[in-house]
Write a structure and sequence with these properties.
heterodimer, A: about 425 residues, alpha+beta, three-stranded antiparallel sheet, flat, B: alpha/beta, Rossmann fold, 2 domains, 13 strands
Chain lengths: ~425, ~375
């Protein structure tokens, strides 16, 4: 708990630039290349139990935002006009309505903001006009103060709604852990990490369902995957994607030397039938039976299913459910998630270079964290934060230390994009 | 209607799930006249599957772990011997079955998780006695008693069905019949709201799978010759709350369905289809333990299949559907030939559908 507060205190130190906020971690790791927002942006935020500070938006941000808000106001008015015209074709009508629906929440906030700004102007002129009436002035000042706080709140909400969002954040996810270099020790660490996510999921009240497990000789995991379901699971866990490196004395090591091994973690958002439509013609489903007549001739508890998606060549095999139907259902779930991720990566790689500066850009071989057991510390290389409660983290307790920082960095990157794209 | 209770198996106490009215003929609306009252049904109390029993046997964690280690090494000692002899399970399959046995016998995941960690110092409640656990696993390995009979259940599609000696263990291939029915009713109201028949239902698997899919718009009748199978099927139907959707009738093939001629929307079946001579060479789990009457299809395995094909014409209404499971390509070809020529030109769209192992497994078609 103390360490958690310490991490947050460091973040809270009011410094003018974002880069400083991010590098005020406990370690001496250099700031990662991802954190390069412009220094003209003034944002101070707090996530800790110390208290909620109302974030302060710089004039530059407000100016940019105003441009966007005005554009939305014009667009909404235009669409509303279109919808009200009787000559509009059904297709145009439907399209316009769809866009209106998407803009609705922003549009509502904007009208709230406008009325608040009108109120502020009204109060300001009241103060000037009634400058002799002390009571009036003090009352107006008090109300002005409240109105301006409310204005700030609305501006923050609007800023958030204008930032690029990942639709996938609300979804469930599929977790894949794979032992990398380091042989048996890597498999053992893969198991430790897998269990860490299991415990973390339980603490968050998420459902953690093992999908597949390939055990190594010493009962570590060569590969393990799970389906995690709950609220906003993908948004929270997506930062875990990448290589996790461990430095410790392996169980098998006789001479007490420290070994380094690696585990790769992948997080895929779960996709449903609407996102990824699988046509029966595109799927080849088979059970890998070793010959034999099957049917009534055999009594088997092996109902493993392998599904090949012919157009993409993607293959998923599931074997650990107790019925063929359930193995097939799970395989389809994993297949959808993988195809969805493939499509998302394809779309993202077509986007501008800004994407590659963001965290979790999808590079699976990016080294994200180092776990050093002898020194009892874990370092996240993207935000430059080191946590010394290594046991707590492995028990699923303090993972939020990293996840909160990563989320913060993502938001700041998004704000940087927002202003630089003008 | 009289019911005689035959308690055939010594059992631990459990409440009776099966109510007598289940066997009453529900189709008063469909049949115009009931010719004679059905014969009294022998009611046999089904054996409770392990996973439904209360975990009232207290054992020391240490002892449970000791049993587990013993069972694991017994499984590992098998190697590929069963596989080499009759295509039976190998050690890795047996070890996985062991994990499932632990799942069924322990109260929750916590216990089976604890077993894998070092904390073996408390007492836990399990669903059978420790002695029973030793006995069961010994039976698995030494007598090749099927895993499903040991745990008393089979996971099939998204269901868990109670099974025991005397009832055929539903096969993974048969899961597909329910998918075939689903495809056919998806755009056909007449079939979806009609009467479906599962002949030789055994544990009730297909009838329950179809019953769940019809969503009480349609109805299903499941028949079997064996009173034991029907008792088990009744138990399964009740567990899934389908008493008002699935009716059970005892008798041989179409015999108990004479009142429904020309009114049936669909006939499905997984009849015995193994040639008699092949039975002795079967995998031990099947040949030594599963009921022969559910497997033996006569000289070329086709006796019952042909009987079904012959009767389907008069049972099915116009546009009705049938799907039968077979031994493979040869049987499928014979049936298709029969349906297209000898069956008196009443069928159309007769097709062969393969299973997921690539074997030509099902014959389907429609009554003209």
């Amino acid at each position: 708990m103390r360490r958690h507060l310490w991490c947050n205190l460091k973040r809270l130190q009011c410094v003018p630039t974002i880069t400083n906020v991010l590098t005020q971690g406990i370690s001496v790791a250099p700031p990662s290349a991802a954190a390069t927002p412009t220094s003209s942006l003034l944002i101070i935020r707090s996530y800790s139990s110390i208290g909620e500070l109302q974030p302060q938006l710089s004039p530059e941000i407000i100016r940019i935002m105003e441009q966007r808000l005005t554009a939305i106001e014009y667009r909404t008015a235009f669409l509303q006009n279109l919808v009200n015209q009787p000559e509009a074709s059904p297709a145009e009508y439907a399209r316009a309505n769809k866009e209106l629906r998407k803009l609705k929440s922003s549009a509502d906030l904007i009208s709230e903001l406008r009325s608040k700004q009108k109120e502020i102007n009204g109060l300001k002129s009241l103060r000037v006009d009634c400058s002799e009436d002390k009571d009036m002035v003090s009352m107006a000042t008090e109300e002005l103060g409240e109105a301006m706080v409310e204005e700030k709140r609305l501006q923050n909400l609007l800023l958030k709604s204008l930032l690029p969002k990942d639709d996938a954040d609300e979804r469930d996810c599929i977790l894949e852990v794979r032992a990398g270099t380091g042989g048996e020790e890597a498999s053992l660490f893969a198991m430790d990490i897998f269990k860490m996510y299991e415990k973390y999921s339980q603490k968050k009240g998420w459902k953690f369902e093992v999908v597949d497990l390939t055990e190594s000789d010493l009962r570590g995991y060569k590969e393990a995957s799970a389906a995690i379901s709950g609220a906003d699971v993908y948004g929270k866990l997506k930062f875990e994607k990448g290589i996790h490196r461990v430095q410790r004395i392996p169980v098998t090591e006789k001479a007490g030397r420290i070994h380094t091994s690696a585990v790769s973690v992948a997080i895929l958002p779960q996709a449903d039938e609407v996102d990824v439509q699988l046509r029966n013609e595109d799927l080849k489903i088979d059970t890998y039976r070793s010959g034999g007549a099957g049917g009534q001739h055999a009594n088997t508890t092996n109902s493993a299913v392998r599904i090949t998606h012919i157009p993409s060549g993607m293959v998923v095999a599931i074997q650990d459910e107790r019925s063929q139907h359930m193995n097939k259902a799970k395989a389809l779930k994993v297949l959808r998630a993988k195809l969805y991720e493939m499509e998302r990566s394809r779309i993202h790689s077509k986007r501008s270079k800004l994407r590659s500066e963001q965290i979790g850009s999808g590079d699976r071989s990016e080294r994200v964290r180092t776990y050093n057991f002898p020194q009892g510390r874990i370092t996240d290389h993207r935000v430059g934060i080191t946590c010394h409660a290594i046991d707590d983290v492995m028990q699923g307790e303090s993972l939020d230390v990293f996840l909160d920082a990563l989320l913060l960095q993502q938001e700041m990157d998004a704000i940087a994009c927002f202003s630089s794209s003008q | 209607m009289k019911l005689s209770l035959i308690s055939a198996f010594g059992m631990s106490n459990f409440t009776m799930f099966i109510k007598p009215p289940l066997f009453r003929n529900l189709h008063q609306s469909v049949c115009s006249s009931v010719k004679s009252p059905p014969p009294p049904l022998a009611y046999i109390k089904p054996r409770m599957p392990l996973f439904l029993r209360p975990s009232t046997h207290m054992v020391a964690m240490l002892d449970l772990c000791k049993w587990y280690e013993w069972a694991k090494s017994l499984a590992s000692s098998v190697g590929t011997t069963f596989e080499d002899v009759d295509n039976g399970p190998d050690s890795s399959l047996l070890r996985r079955e062991l994990k499932w046995l632990v799942d069924d016998v322990t109260e929750d995941r916590a216990v089976s998780l604890l077993m894998h960690s070092e904390k073996c110092d408390r007492n836990v409640g399990i669903r059978v006695s420790l002695d029973e656990l030793y006995k069961l696993w010994k039976e698995r390995i030494e007598e090749r008693r099927p895993f499903q009979y040991i745990v008393g259940c089979e996971h099939w599609r998204d269901l868990v069905l109670c099974v025991q000696e005397g009832v055929l263990i539903p096969r993974p291939e048969t899961e597909q019949i329910v998918d075939l029915v689903a495809d056919v009713v998806s755009d056909n109201e007449g079939l979806r709201e009609g009467l479906w028949v599962d002949l030789g239902t055994g544990s009730g698997a297909i009838a329950i799978g179809v019953g769940m899919m019809l969503e009480s718009l349609g109805r299903a009748i499941a028949t079997d010759l064996s009173p034991l199978a029907l008792s088990v099927a009744a138990f399964n139907v009740q567990r899934y709350g389908l008493q008002d959707v699935v009716e059970l009738r005892q008798g041989s093939w179409f015999e108990p369905l004479k009142d429904l001629e020309g009114k049936v929307a669909g006939i499905v079946s997984n009849p015995p289809y193994i040639p008699s001579d092949n039975i002795s060479g079967l995998q031990a789990e099947v040949g030594r333990h599963e009921p022969r009457i559910a497997l033996d299809g006569g000289v070329n395995g086709m006796d019952d299949l042909l009987r079904l094909c012959k009767g389907a014409g008069s049972m099915l209404k116009s546009g009705g559907f049938f799907a039968f499971e077979t031994n493979g390509e040869q049987q499928c070809k014979h049936l298709v030939e029969y349906m297209e020529t000898d069956a008196g030109d009443c069928f159309c769209n007769v097709n062969i559908v393969p299973d997921f192992a690539g074997i030509q497994r099902f014959v389907t078609g429609f009554r003209k």
